[in-house]
Each structure stands twice: as structure tokens, then as C-alpha cells.
Amino acid sequence: MKHFKYLLILSSFLLCTAVQAKGKFGIDAYSLNKAVCYQGSSYKSTFTKVGHKKWLEVNEVGTRINWQERNRDEWSVYLMDSSRKMNLQIDLHTTKVAWGYFNQATSNELCRIKNANGNAQGQAAARSQEQVCKSLVQGKVAWSRGGSKNWQTSNLHKLCKNSPNAAKTVQCFKAAINKHNNWSKGIKECSGNKKAINAGPIWNQNDAKQKCPRVASQNGGKWTGGWWTTVQGKMSVCEIKFD
After folding, report:
1. Where in this chain does the record put each Mannan-binding protein domain (predicted)?
2. CB contact set of 139 (below 8 Å; sequence gap of 6+)
3. Interior/surface letters 129-168, b for 16+ CB within 10 angstroms, e for the rest
4. Is 34:117 a contact under the CB 8 Å cutoff?
């Protein structure tokens, strides 16, 4: 009986952990196709994917607004409206929908997500990158200089879980080993628990050093030192790491 209770508790813990990994809504942003958000207790907008890279917003007064999908990662879908020169971020991690103009960060909160739906295809795409990552590492990449290429399953999972780009994850780990030869540190540096967050235009490295730590602090993470421009002269992103 005690053994049964232990298994029941363990199963519940594993289930809760799995749900938490996918966030409050049980899905990640790779599969998101609909989000309903509120301002306080009042309905604000529904965002629905209506076609390839096409989204439709219907707000509280029935106004229909078209958005174009720019990209997405594990936690967020990033939209843009060129006619109004606006960016929008639907963030399942913080449950915020936030906006900003092309020359600004998406830091203006529009509403909070109450419901979100996804599809199996998006989840499969995310799992696919994780599996590709594992196949590129196991038996092929040494976990230390001159070390074995046979990885423990748990460490392989830590490195490749939620990898948005398998090739970049592997490249990152190889570079980390060449730099400091610390496999544990390399996994932390290169695991998929990172995301690119809009920061407005970043003009150079000194500008990034000013803006990216602030973006990281606002989102509860740490800046990795990485940044790049997504829309020339209008939008750049900071790479933020979450523990």
C-alpha cells in the first residue's frame, strides 16, 4: 500500500512537471492558433490564426484587425502590422499580450491571456527539433575535450529539450567545450531555455549593453550577450536566458 501511494505521488509530480513545462495553458507557442485576452475582468480581444502567417484580431467592439506572423518560439508568437508600424507579442509564459511601434520594444501591455488553444502540428515541430538535436549529439559529439561521445540520457535531454534549432544548439555546445571544457556549464549556456525578445532598434554593441539587460530584467531572465536585428533600423531582439 505504501509503495502504491509512493507511485501515485511520483506520478502526480511528474504530471505537474510536464504541465508546468508547457505553461499555464498546457501548450507552447509553437502550436498556438488562438488566444483570448482580458483587461482585468473585461474582455479585450481574441487573436486567431486564419491562414499561413496570417492572424485576425477581433476586439471588444467587434473591430477586425489583420496581423502578420513574423516568427515564434517556445513561449511567444510575434506579430506585426505594417500599416500601423506596430509589433505585437502573444506571450504564453507571462500570459501578456504586449505591443510596441517598430522603433520600440513590445513593452506596452494590451491584455492578459485567459484562454489559449493549439494544434498537434506545432507541438510535433518542436519535438522534431529536440529529436534532431539528440541524434546530432549522441555518439557524435564529445561532452569534453577528448572525452566520450556516449551521453547519459538525462544530460542529453537537458541540452536538447525545447531546442528551437537543433544545429545551433549543437554548434553552441561545441563552442562552449572548446572555450572552457565544462560540459555542465555548456549545457546551461546552450539549452533551449532561451528566447529572443523584441527590444526596439539596437544600433551597436554599446547600445545593446544598455537595452538588453533592461529587457532581461523586465522579463525575469538574464541577457546572454546575444542580440541581432530583425527589421533593419526598426527592430532588434535580445537573447534572454531563463533558469
Report:
1. 205-240
2. 149, 150
3. bbebbbebbeeebebeeeeeeebeeeebebbbbbbbebee
4. yes
In terms of Cα–Cα distance, which of 28, 23, 15 is closest to 121?
28
pLDDT tens, residue by residue, 144-199: 998 899 999 999 988 988 776 788 889 989 999 999 999 999 998 888 777 778 88
Sheet holding 194-200, edge to edge: 194-200, 235-241, 222-231
Tell me the C-alpha distance between 102 and 79, whole Å.
11
* Cα gap 159→169, rounded to integer Å: 8
Residue 141 DSSP symbol:
S
**Cβ-proximal residues to 17 (8 Å cutoff; 6+ apart), any chain:** none
> What is the rounded distance in angstroms from the CA atom of residue 159 to the CA atom of residue 138?
11
Nearest in space to 45 (alpha carbons), one of 53, 54, 56: 56
